[in-house]
Amino acid sequence: MRVNVTVNGAPMTADDVWPGESLLYVLRERLGLPGAKNACEQGECGSCTVYLDGLPVCACLVAAGQAEGREVLTVEGLASGEELDPVQEAFVECGAVQCGFCTPGLIVQAHSLIAGHDGVPADAEIREHLAGNLCRCTGYEKILDAVRLAARRKAGS
Amino acid sequence: MHEFRYERPATVAEAIRAVAHDPEADFLAGGTTEVDLMKDGVFHPDLLVDITRLPLRGVRRDGTMLQVGALTTMEELASDRTLMERAPFVVEALLRGASVQLRNMATIGGNLLQRTRCRYFRDPAVPACNKREPGSGCEAVNSVARMHAILGASPACIALHASDLAVALVALDAVVHIQSEEGERLVPLTQFYLMPGETPDRENVLRHGELITAVDIPLPPEGTRSIYLKIRDRASYEFALASAAIAVIMDGPVIKEARVAMGGVGTIPWRGFEAEEVLREAPATPDTFRSAADGTIRDPFIVPGTAFKVELAKRTLIRALTEVTS
């Protein structure tokens, strides 16, 4: 089947999509966007987190047909040209990246927290919001630092 | 994954017709359970009927009741202001039930129909599972079990019902709207789920081709206090070892009215009618709470790995009652 989807602002079309393919597979293997990662494939690890119509979801559990006509924003769409999104910058500055496999999902999920928040979220709120994103390297402390930094900068303090 | 066809009908009637006329067809809503189980080879429909764009979404206040469209997402229902004010324990159950990403896709109808997390059910390489292959036996009873049921369980099946939301909703006597080609029927959630008995593959009263279109949540009277206490292996994003959903109306130190349900212990979301009887018109004391707990966790069916749940479940209920009445 054919799947039409707007990805990072641009209309895209994937042909010969098998109904059993996930949105993640379509993004990575058919549309050339390998940012979202394929790890657990069960919605447990959050590595495949993308925005679907403005809300973060696990792309591995979205059937390709469900994405038809909808808007997707992936980690590739967060930066403007060479200029990183403030969340990406904060991850770099804080050393919140080690092996990097969970990073795209965490960046998108952290982005969704900060986008919906005027101030700096409490640690408990950050932890709860990122609960569906697993990282096996960092122990999360540097990730929390990065989220706090990005939130502080956005709040202007 | 098994080959299948995908359709996206434009109306509820067409969707129901498409599934009703194909014994191997299934509805697809948020997909967070279904797509997962299709990847694992547990589900193998030959036709998936995508209902996600049907007009069954949204929360509507109707007097003392909230009518929730079956395709409302968990996150949407969790942010409903009336629910937050009048029955915050339902919101707590929703927020403790899944990660943000899953709550944005998972629907209320789908949540009620989510399948067990029993690892033997979810692994087709395990031959014995009466739920997956009727008559094949139960590997969980004979092997390692922990996240399993102690109430409503039997040698044929100890699979746990994993929903948090359903626990709070059985406490409130929610009602499920079920649509078929013949028309609509209403089923109280307390009568919706079936004990495994000898047919663990039949989990609820839905017949093939029937679709949940809405759930009515009766709002408890103003002044009701409620709690959803979930005990689990880690602080977030984990299924319950034991959970308690409680709503009470207090008159000073006396409990006037109580609703009790438990999760993490039953093959179905477990309504504690015995506990409610003990609590009604009783003083909010440790003795009352212990009697309520003993009345709820009666005649458990345990295997070595689940024996710890008997006392854990009682303590969970006692702690929840202590917190909500103080």
UniProtKB/TrEMBL annotation, chain A:
The keyword Metal-binding applies. Residues 1-78 form the 2Fe-2S ferredoxin-type domain. One of its GO terms (molecular function) is metal ion binding. Keywords: 2Fe-2S, Iron, Iron-sulfur, Metal-binding, Oxidoreductase. SUPFAM superfamilies: 2Fe-2S ferredoxin-like, CO dehydrogenase ISP C-domain like. This is (2Fe-2S)-binding protein.
From TrEMBL, chain B:
This is Xanthine dehydrogenase family protein subunit M. Coiled coil: none annotated. Keywords: Oxidoreductase. It comes from Herbidospora galbida. The keyword Metal-binding does not apply. It comes from the Bacteria. InterPro entries: CO_DH_flav_C, CO_DH_flav_C_dom_sf, Diverse_Substr_Oxidored, FAD-bd_PCMH, FAD-bd_PCMH-like_sf, FAD-bd_PCMH_sub1, FAD-bd_PCMH_sub2, Mopterin_DH_FAD-bd. PROSITE patterns: FAD_PCMH. Residues 1-222 form the FAD-binding PCMH-type domain.
